[in-house]
Amino acid sequence: MNILKSAAARRSLQVIASGLMVTLVAGCGMSSLTSGIGGGMLGGSSSSNTEIASVSEDQLLTAAKADYNTTASAGIDAAHNCPRFIVSPTGNHVTIYEQGRIGDALAVMHRGEITKTARECYIENGRVTVKYGFSGRVLLGPRGQAGTIRLPVNVYVNDPRREKLTQDAMAVDVAVSVDRPIGYFSVVRTVSFPLQEGTRPAEYEVLVGFDRNLPNAG
């Protein structure tokens, strides 16, 4: 049984390694990797960065695991009048490699992906409060080690001129192992800021993304 279990675990990691290699060699981004693993190994859809309609950690976690595609957004004062909540184009994923082997699919330690978002807002007395959430997954690579992986995440609020108003730093912790090489995370937070004179809430944006200033990140 132990021999069969070890063989199955090795095959699981080989599948992930193959998917990572194809994606990196082809020069593709996150959506291609998500499509390859989600559509093949997990049986999910190829959607990425999809906004869902409930701002709760449980709902976001369920969405990340199911990888279903919904585009409705939650809102109190009508979603269209809320600040946009988007995943940074440069921070939607991060891949950590063995030292000196960045870009080598066979040297991947682990990879983090943000795949789902949700937000709602409250507007009162010239101040906007945004309740936002995001979720995703961490994949163990062929050179990864079992344990808890911590990946830092940054959140920014930009004004209508795309100047930074405020920022928040946090981290997601995900447990992975050879038997369970894919782990999931979800986060829900709240940010509040004053409306500048002559501006509307919809002109602001909240961005979330992995901090890519990490050793051996690619």
Walk me through this protein's architecture.
- The protein is α+β, with helices and mostly antiparallel strands.
- The protein has one domain (2-210).
- The protein has three helices and nine strands, in the order H-H-E-H-E-E-E-E-E-E-E-E.
- Strands 1, 3, 4, 5 and 8 form a five-stranded mixed sheet that branches. It has a four-stranded mixed sheet with strand order 2-9-6-7, with no helix packed on it.
- Strand 6 (147-158) and strand 7 (164-176) form a beta hairpin.
- The model is unreliable at 1-5, 21-48 and 69-78 (pLDDT under 50).
Task: Write a compact overview of the structure shown.
It is built from three helices and nine strands. It has 218 residues and is an alpha+beta fold. Strands 1, 3, 4, 5 and 8 form a five-stranded mixed beta sheet that branches.
